[in-house]
Amino acid sequence: MTPIVLAYLGIGLMIALAGAGSAYGVSYGGNAALGAMKKNSDAFGNYLVLSALPGTQGLYGFAGYFVISGTGVLSPEITAVQGAAVLGAGIALGIVGLLSGIRQGQVCANGIAGIGSGHDVFGSTLVLAVFPELYAILAFAATFMISGTL
């Protein structure tokens, strides 16, 4: 494969996998919110925040593309090492975004279920949901650092 193909494969994986993780995560939250509203519809604002939180992983994947493209490396003159670096960054951010988005959605869904049952767990759920988010942020930071070497 040519280096530019490797690079664009990495970009595609970065956006697709991180976006898929967000899609699953926000769906978990949304489904939990619909169930919780049957019991307690007064907390819709809390449900909305917790349902939307896993959407950030897809944004990190999309932002990763802009970070890489801002280097000017995505051109026919790209070297094999640069293409491999972009592919590696794409795989790393994509997989971490996929898994952290799904798992953060599950944390948020459980928090939504707790709020729907009458428990005051919104703040605690936000704190616990930050942990999967941290790994997506680290993967994005690594992508940023890799782009600095291109």
From TrEMBL:
The keyword Membrane applies. The keyword Transmembrane applies. Gene3D superfamilies: lithium bound rotor ring of v- atpase. It comes from the Bacteria. InterPro entries: ATPase_proteolipid_c-like_dom (IPR002379), F/V-ATP_Csub_sf (IPR035921). One of its GO terms (cellular component) is proton-transporting two-sector ATPase complex, proton-transporting domain. The chain crosses the membrane at residues 6-26, 47-68, 80-100, 121-146. It is found in: Membrane. Keywords: Membrane, Transmembrane, Transmembrane helix. GO terms for molecular function: proton transmembrane transporter activity. Residues 9-67, 87-146 form the V-ATPase proteolipid subunit C-like domain. It is a multi-pass membrane protein. This is V-type ATP synthase subunit K.
